[in-house]
Amino acid sequence: MKISEKYLIGLKQAYIEVGGSEIWERLEKVKHGASAEDIQKLKEQYPEIPASLLDLLDFADGTHWRAYGDEKVNMRVLGTADSQEFGYHLLSVRQMLENQNLVKKHEIYWKSIDRRYDESDVKVDDRIISDSSSVSWLHFADIDYSQLFVDFTPSAKGKAGQIVKYIHDPDEFTVVADSFDDYLQILIDYEYIFVNEDAIKE
Question: Which of 31, 38, 103, 122 has a beta carbon 3.0–4.6 Å from 93's, enabling a disulfide?
Answer without folding.
Answer: 38
